[in-house]
What we know:
The complex is a heterodimer of chains A (115) and B (112).
Chain A: E1 4-5, E2 10-14, E3 19-25, E4 32-38, E5 45-51, E6 56-59, E7 62-67, E8 72-77, E9 86-93, E10 103-105, E11 109-114
Chain B: E1 4-7, E2 10-13, E3 19-25, E4 31-38, E5 42-51, E6 54-57, E7 64-66, E8 76-78, E9 87-94, E10 102-103, E11 107-111
Parallel strand pairs in B: 2-11
Antiparallel strand pairs in B: 1-3, 3-8, 4-5, 4-9, 5-6, 7-8, 9-10, 9-11
Amino acid sequence: DQQVKQNSPSLSVQEGRISILNCDYTNSMFDYFLWYKKYPAEGPTFLISISSIKDKNEDGRFTVFLNKSAKHLSLHIVPSQPGDSAVYFCAASGWPAGGGNKLTFGTGTQLKVEL
Amino acid sequence: DAEITQSPRHKITETGRQVTLACHQTWNHNNMFWYRQDLGHGLRLIHYSYGVQDTNKGEVSDGYSVSRSNTEDLPLTLESAASSQTSVYFCASSTRKGGEQYFGPGTRLTVT
């Protein structure tokens, strides 16, 4: 039972354009959401997060949107750069309501930014 | 600088052998986690610990064990390695008050 779903295994975008990565979740107890970026042969690195009390969080070129009614979040990267090419994981947590900061991850989306 | 390290980075072992993967963090984080990454499954939680002497099972804990004798280390043991345990293993840590987890570089384990 996949509680966090990333339905697009891959995405290709031209440099300078917007990248939109999507994530859906099924567990209504999730109240904190995170995006991680992973390069080959490295560990995932934290990118941006959003609490369920917000619907948008922005950090430079990265913006995360949360639609609680649809149980959907998205990561927007504007403008996309070749260095953004990586696997992006969506993750969700029930903290602090439960789970003590235990994360449930999606299956990942491979983003390729082409010149 | 504080960091989280894993060793070995690569390991090849035979079916049935016991294997221990090391994880060491210098952030003094209470929470530590072990995940495995497999194609089509993302990152799945194996075991986690919220402090010394505390350990908990994750969603794919069968065949794995952990122990937490100090704050810095959470070794993962495969009691009797199986080919299905061929994977990339990541250790992570976090503070109790934060949501982000900080990951180590990973260990690629091959069971032949």
